[in-house]
């Protein structure tokens, strides 16, 4: 008897499972619809925007930022006019835009800028004028981190 984890999904398994086939067809239709919608949006608005659904003439999009969502709302009549030229969206009469920030955003690593010679000189000068011994040591240590 085969384990469930040993079962592989193959093109043949789609023919035997009507529910899975139906889901794959819906996913493919959704992907095609998203390509059409994003193709009608201006390039700067298409990045970070996703097609959610289109039911009963109501088109729903999601944008990563509120600024992008506002720009789409501002240009909604132009966008809907372009979309109505496509057979799939000829009855679109309402556009709804939701803001859905990305779940995970890769933040660039913060690189520390090396200390310039001028700033190091100023730190040493300030250390010379400081009466507190511990603060003077810290300032001198910071001044020693100058770039070469």
List the helices and strands and how they pair.
Elements: H1 11-16, H2 18-40, H3 43-46, E1 49-55, E2 58-63, H4 66-74, H5 76-83, E3 94-99, H6 117-129, H7 133-143
Parallel strand pairs: 2-3
Antiparallel strand pairs: 1-2
Helix pairs in contact: 6-7
Structure write-up:
This protein is an alpha+beta fold. It folds into two domains: 16-99, DnaA, N-terminal domain (GMP Synthetase, Chain A, domain 3); 108-148. It is 50% helix and 13% strand. The protein is built from seven helices and three strands. A three-stranded mixed beta sheet has the order 1-2-3. Helix 6 (117-129) packs antiparallel against helix 7. Pfam families: DciA. This is DUF721 domain-containing protein. It comes from Marinobacter lipolyticus SM19.
Task: Report the order of strands and helices.
Answer: HHHEEHHEHH
The tally of helices reads 7
Order of strands across the main sheet? 1-2-3
What structural category arises from helix and sheet content? alpha+beta
Count of discrete domains: 2
Pfam families: DciA
Protein name: DUF721 domain-containing protein
InterPro entries: DciA-like
Organism: Marinobacter lipolyticus SM19
Question: Features of this protein?
Answer:
single chain, GMP Synthetase, Chain A, domain 3, 3-stranded mixed beta sheet, 148 residues, DUF721 domain-containing protein, 2 domains, alpha+beta, DciA-like
Short description:
By secondary structure, the chain is α+β, with helices and mostly antiparallel strands. Helix content is 50%, strand content 13%. Pfam families: DciA.
């Amino acid at each position: 008897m085969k384990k469930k984890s040993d079962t592989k999904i193959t093109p043949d398994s789609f023919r035997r499972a009507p529910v899975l086939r139906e889901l794959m067809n819906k996913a493919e239709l959704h992907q095609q619809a998203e390509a059409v919608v994003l193709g009608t949006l201006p390039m700067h608005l298409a990045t970070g925007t996703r097609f959610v659904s289109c039911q009963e003439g109501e088109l729903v999009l999601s944008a990563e930022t509120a600024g992008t969502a506002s720009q789409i709302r501002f240009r909604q009549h132009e966008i809907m006019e372009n979309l109505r030229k496509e057979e799939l969206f000829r009855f679109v009469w309402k556009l709804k835009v939701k803001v859905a920030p990305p779940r995970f955003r890769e933040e660039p690593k913060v690189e520390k800028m090396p200390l310039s010679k001028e700033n190091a000189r100023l730190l040493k000068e300030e250390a010379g004028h400081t009466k507190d011994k511990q603060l003077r040591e810290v300032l001198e240590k910071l001044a020693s981190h100058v770039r070469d």
